[in-house]
User: What shape does this take?
Amino acid sequence: MKIMYIARFARTDLLRAVGVLSTKITKWDTLCDRKLFRIIKYINGTTTWRQIGFVGDNPSELSLGLFSDADFAGDKELQRSTSGVFLALYGPHSFFPLSAQSKKQTATSHSTVEAEIIAADHAIRTAGLPALPLWETILDRSISLDVYQDNQATARIMSSGRAPTLRHIKRTHQVSVAWLHERVTSPDVVLHDCLSEVMAADIFTKHFINKDKWEQVCSLIEVVTSKQMYTLQQLSKRSIACPAILVASVMAARPQPARATDQVSPLPTRATTEQSGLSGLMNIPSSTSSPTVGSASVTTEKSGFTHGCGAKNYGC
Assistant: This one.
């Protein structure tokens, strides 16, 4: 119970590992003992890691960002997927984690898109919408919820409200695509595109075996080492603190190929390349491939700010 408390309130990088073990309490075996011992060793070896948050903006410049992600059949025993949710308050000089969830889905999904739809519904319904009235009261103004989705097919379904192959999810998962469409098209929710490399909720859905990649995804939820905290420097007025917003600005500047059958407008983003000062920082290939971050961590021009990832070719 102590480790679960730490995972929920101080070290959200432990959420998935602790959540998986918590489902085995009534059927504990020797493998669970080994997993628990590994978690203890990980906690003992990362005592200098901290989850940080910083706010350096006026209330009029702050926004709510919601990230949702899902794996596909990550549970090898029951073939069920895991939903990951991350909610943060962000601005030009602010990025403050508010809540995180790692939850096994209640029914088996038949595709990645189905699992992502279930995760998006869970994120908006349990984390995003309940936070809106609270932060509207705190900030003393009306705000919208920025929802970030890294799956293009899922975002298309949420924007159009059409999913002929997912008619069964209302019965199996108790999720309505029509409700999701209503929320996304309402003025209080804005859907944004996001690269998988900067999806903050990715850490709550799957395990990682590469040390550099693990430190990279931890930094996306502001769980950083003492060395990474040292690299955080003062931001300029032209920079954006949230990594996903930085990459979203570059994606907004990419030319979109026109298609006659495409009836849904591209997903909006919150900033342009000029606004975020990202010109020349990311290598943007042809229109058929995704932009990739260079060999160093993302640094904003004219500010000298490094987000503290330090991981090569993984984005920041």
Remarks:
- Residues 234-238, 257-266, 268-316 have pLDDT under 50 and may be disordered.
- The chain has eleven helices and eleven strands.
- The longest helix spans residues 112-139.
- Residues 1-47 form one domain.
